[in-house]
Design a protein that fits this description.
The chain is mainly α and 157 residues long. It has helices at residues 4-13, 16-28, 32-36, 69-76, 100-108, 118-129, 134-141, 146-152, and strands at residues 43-44, 49-52, 63-66, 88-89, 92-93. The protein contains eight helices and five strands; from the N terminus they run H-H-H-E-E-E-H-E-E-H-H-H-H. The strands form two sheets. Strands 1-2-3 form a three-stranded antiparallel beta sheet. The two termini are 14 Å apart.
Length: 157
């Protein structure tokens, strides 16, 4: 997300069922499929960690994702809505958060050239701006090397 103003405009236009999933995506940098398919069994609320199983990770290695306050708030807002899946709409798992509702919200917010996958780029960019070392970001997201972090982090400075 290029600016705080764009984020505010987008969240003003997002339907309620997408606000928590987009918040979580921006806070964790996870892939769309990992966010949409997240199960309660992958969340350790007391340790504030989400687990991406090796079978779900491109690197074929499990990833423990630390959950900041925004990610925790997004998850906690979904408690008791579904027995197994974290993010749902009308009692059913959200399979594609980048569907028509997402696209319409972007259009209403007058945001162009931004995809759901760009949330994944926003995460390392924000961390890099805040001074998080590249090596640490590599470990946090399970990337194969620092080259991937540099590819994903879009520096606008």
């Amino acid at each position: 997300m290029a600016s705080t103003l764009e984020k505010e405009r987008l969240f003003k236009e997002l339907p309620e069922h997408l606000k928590s999933i987009v918040t979580f995506a921006l806070a964790t940098g996870l892939k769309r499929a990992n966010v949409a398919g997240l199960k309660w069994s992958q969340i350790d609320l007391s340790r504030r960690i989400a687990w991406i199983f090796a079978t779900q990770a491109k690197s074929s290695k499990p990833i423990g994702i630390p959950l900041n306050d925004e990610a925790m708030s997004a998850i906690l807002s979904q408690r008791s809505k579904h027995k197994t899946n974290v993010f749902t709409y009308n009692g059913k798992p959200i399979k594609n958060p980048a569907g028509p509702a997402w696209k319409k919200a972007l259009k209403r917010a007058k945001i162009e050239n931004y995809t759901f996958h760009d949330n994944r780029h926003t995460w390392p960019t924000n961390h890099t701006v805040q001074g998080t070392p590249t090596r640490q970001l590599t470990e946090l997201d399970g990337w194969s090397g620092e080259k991937m972090v540099k590819r994903y982090a879009r520096m606008n400075v």
